[in-house]
Every structure is written in structure tokens, then in C-alpha cells.
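Let us walk through a complete example step by step. Step one is to write down the protein sequence. Step two is to encode the small molecule, NAP, as a SMILES string so that its atoms and bonds are unambiguous. Step three, shown after the inputs, is the structure prediction itself.
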Amino acid sequence: MNDKQILITGATNGIGFAAAEALAALGANLAIVGRSKTKTRIALARIRAAAGRGATVATFIADLSSQASVRRLAAEVLARYRKLDVLVNNAGAMYGTRQLTKDGIELTWAVNHLAPFLLSNLLLHRLKESAPARIITTTSQAHQGARIPFDDLNAGRSYRGFGRYCETKLAKFLFTTELARRLDGTGVTANCFHPGLVATGFNRNNGLLMGLGMTILRPVSRSPEKGAETLVWLATSPDLANVSGVYFFDREQRPPSPEAQDTGTARRRWEISERQCAVRSSTR
Ligand SMILES: NC(=O)c1ccc[n+]([C@@H]2O[C@H](COP(=O)([O-])OP(=O)(O)OC[C@H]3O[C@@H](n4cnc5c(N)ncnc54)[C@H](OP(=O)(O)O)[C@@H]3O)[C@@H](O)[C@H]2O)c1
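Step three: the predicted structure of the complex.
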């Protein structure tokens, strides 16, 4: 992996951190994105300690809830790297209460869906120039049963933390399938995966009761290293060079929910996301 440049978000904790460690151990050149300088510095030291021969690790700071911050991140990445082989959209969170970002977007939607949408679109030409290249997105089995609330996109009428989280995971899913369609023939693939139930920092930001719930689930949860296995495989396996628009769990292709397979919904959501991010995609 010495000749591969990989950018990974949400690499300061959980699945993203475990994936970054594993990819660095394989000798990849990593660019990790964190929002806290301190946590990112600590992650950097630990990833460097695990790194294999020839690996390099660089850091970028960005708060993915802010579109200005995502734009700054993309500009810094483009200025630094002439070649980008893999983009991993991994960062994500669930929020128990409805909050709006500086951009006026509901926070879960902003972090889980619009940030990967915007970042991928802003980096797309560099990925195409670097083809063969890959875009990998961490989604969740929680997308099953969810629908995109086109008439209440900002969750102003109704908000339930987990329900909203599931909607954003469906949105990430639809993003992947539409992106794969648009990238057909470019040499850039787009796939997504479910990591399983993983013992991480996930849902530890929603108060004591939720934290207790996550602690109770620990014995039936997998380790971050196990949760990261499919991500690492998607980033590295030569077998996947021509595989795109696919949903994986434990390295196996899985059927997405019927809603996630609706190409009309995928296209509509894409166009709305373009407007929400004030970005015009270079793909059609
Ligand atoms: N854990 C599970 O069971 C599970 C299951 C299915 C899917 N997933 C998905 O897996 C992905 C990784 O989650 P995880 O389980 O590893 O949780 P985690 O331990 O909480 O890690 C989440 C990562 O995302 C980062 N992040 C969150 N909000 C951000 C923001 N506004 N700007 C920049 N970075 C931000 C966090 O940064 P900080 O370190 O600064 O907080 C952290 O590095 C998420 O997309 C999640 O939805 C998890």
C-alpha cells in the first residue's frame, strides 16, 4: 500500500481509528481527519506507532457539521495531494435532541449525509485524475425501514434521534448508489458497508441513560478492529477494483432495503443535497 494515498474521516475514535491503524500497518499513506486538535494529535501518535514500513500519516482538522469547514478541508487536501486513491467517509454520529448547524441544517443530516456528499464532490476531480480510485462510505443496517422525509428534510415537524439517524444512513446509501451510477466508466468506484454493532464512542454523547445502554450492549458488540475489517478490505482488496454501487457486511454483498434501491429517490435526494450544499456536481 506504499503508493496509496488514503483520506479518512472520523479517524480519532472507534471504527475509523481502528481502520487507520490497520491501513497504516499495511504501509499506506494516510490523511486522517479529526475535529479536535488534541484527539487528532493523540490518534496520530498511536497510528504512527502502529505504522508499517513506508507508511506516512498526516492530519487535517475539520468540523464536518460546518460546510465552510468541509470546504476548507477539501481545499487543504487538494493543495497537498496531487493524487488521492481512496476517500473514506466514515465520521458519523447520532443526536438525541434536534440541533441546527451554523448553516441552518439539522445536525445529524449535516454530519452524516451532507458532509460526505460535499467532501466527495469537492474531491471528485482529484479522485478521477488518480483513477483507479475508491470512495468508501460507512453506513448502517439501520437504514432498513427508513424513508427520506422529503416534506420535512430538516426534521422540523418531528424528531426522534434514532429515527433521524436511520434516515441519514439511508441517505448515505442512496448517495453511494447514485454516485456509483454517475462515476460509471471513470475508474472511480463507490461502495458502502455496515460495520456491525461495534463498541465505540457511538451514542456516548446522548446522556447517562444512552451511555448505560451502550455499556449494556458491549458484551454483544464487536471490537472496533473487527468493525473496521470490511472497510480495510474495501480500501485494499484487488478483487474489488471493478465493483461499485454495492453494500457490504462482513465482506459479503448484502441486499439494501427496497427504499435504498429506488433510483428515483436517489436522484431526487442528490439534487436536493446539491442545493443544500450550494454545490454543482461535476457528474451527471
Ligand atoms: N458503532 C456502531 O455500532 C455502528 C454501527 C453502524 C454504523 N456505524 C457508523 O460507523 C461510523 C463510525 O462511528 P463509530 O461507531 O466509530 O463512532 P465513534 O467512536 O463515535 O467515532 C465517530 C468518529 O466521527 C467523528 N465525528 C463525529 N462528529 C464529527 C464532526 N462533526 N466533525 C468531524 N468528525 C466528527 C468523531 O470525532 P470525535 O473523536 O471528535 O468525536 C469520531 O472520530 C459512523 O458513521 C457510524 O454511524 C457505527
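Step four is interpretation. The first strand starts at residue 5 and ends at 9.
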